[in-house]
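Weekend entry, working from home. Most of the wet-lab plans are on hold until the incubator is repaired, so I used the time to fold the two sequences that have been sitting in the queue since the last round of cloning. Logging both here for the record. First:
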Amino acid sequence: MDCISQKAVILGAGLLGGSLGMAMRERGLAETIHVWSPRESTRTACAEKAWCDGVFETPEEACQGADLVFLCGPVDKIPPLMETISSTCGEGCIISDVGSTKAGICKAGSRWFPANHPATFIGSHPMAGSEKSGLAYADANLFQGKSCILTPVDSSTEDLARLKKFWDALGMKLFECPPEEHDRIVAHVSHLPHALAAALCNGLATMPAEWKQCAGAGLRDTSRIAAGDPHLWAAIFRENETAFRKSIRLLESSLASMKASLDAPDDHALLTFLETARAYRLQLDDESSCGNSSLSS
């Protein structure tokens, strides 16, 4: 593949950051890959990785001379990182992120990388996370076949095209929408499922402990994402609180409908509820219905 960056920088080498580094090296997308991470243990581990060409003690040092920077920390840590590197990133540098929320992050991007700044910020959200976290679980193929939502605000056509080329080279399906629309969408299709899994596990945690021994694949499949990092998810829920609350109301309404169907004298309403659910779930596996596009409400 064509090299897209002469010097790419990853700030935060956890699951997503480490996977980015591995994927860039495997696909030849960056000539040089530099890393900074807040934990010394992670920096030490990165220094031993074949995909990493340099590890630095500060974000500013890592970003010197970079033309592509990815902010891979928790959503509440990304805006402060922008402020830290804003005076370091120069002409032609694209700064992006992997955060699960976008309105606040893109607002910070416009503040620290305004139109007259030599560098450009463009929001990205690769939908490729896992309930696991940390560099130890990084995977060069983590992004293959997954969706990536871009939320450009003030970027040039050329910069956006370059970032799209990068994510496309990782095998991702690209979508584009305003930051606020992104947050409304992911509140429902990403944040709500996590909350549902957490609520299910919280409820079952009040039941006799030995019940867990009787659980089958259904409970494990449904609850898998509840094993995600609580601190990371608390920050996501808080950052996207308005849209997240609306998604919870949708779930409450759906549960009320199911409960009401049990009160009906026959199974018509219940079957309709379950058939609608089944049809939606089957559509998720229909890859032909997904592709690069702009998202609309």
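Second, folded right after the first finished:
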Amino acid sequence: MLTPTPLEELLDLAADVIGGDRRVLPAGAAGSPFITLGGGLGQAVRLQARAERQLGLAVDLAQLLGPAPLADVLARARPAPVRAAGGVERGAAVRALLPGQSAALAAEREAGAGAVTRILSAELSGPLDTDALRRALAALSARHEGLRTAFAATARGPVRRVLAVCPPSLVTLEAVAGGPGEDLVAAAHARLAVRAGRLVTRPGLPPLAFALTPLATGRHLLSFVHHDAVADSRSAALVWQELLADYDRAVRRRPLDRAPRPGPDTPGRGGAAPGGPVRMLPPGAAPHPEHPQR
């Protein structure tokens, strides 16, 4: 399977909050309850919150603390309700769509998610620190509300929901196997293009994800998959500029800047300076998949 199932993603979160090994937990979760595996009330509450925030899934807290095997409890998770204007969860701000977002969502209704989904990739060489990459992604989304913006339908039409916290999803795909002389990057893009629409259509979450594809020993393709309502080609390139800089700092264990930048609704907000904060612009011409070298 190229993309992790919801259960696999939930088990990854459970391992993270418990402090266990992600490779070992699934075997234990098949027959043991959350508490036996090292979880307590605090960890259960954090797992429930992160499942809804990061995956858009609702996990029953009482079942999580009960005697049923953890895998069975997580398999019963259901999509969390999307609450828009008049019923927004704490920490989410509901706002009117920006003009470019309206156009992108209208295009999706007409032609489907595949028509408004873009892929921009970077080929990474050398050892990869996935924990540092996740920290860099979390810092990037903390700074820029465009990466924390989900879209919801209401009686008055679509709205955008700016979430207080929502680290981008990092999905690890299967390695690409190719023969001598085969373009592994092109093969990875071709495979990812088929699945890109699913990565950006997760209820209650921003329509974007980062996909990591191993190419060969010491080589990975990291792809920013996003809806046109999230970014145009210029702002997507700026996302890369900041992400790679943050990743370098995270690898070196340097502090990451998480201070929120002014959003499009900030009074008197000006344009982004070259090399400065990412400016999430209205969608424009979509780029073809690229893979700039790092």
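Plan for Monday: verify the second prediction. The CA atoms of residues 19 and 44 lie 12 Å apart.
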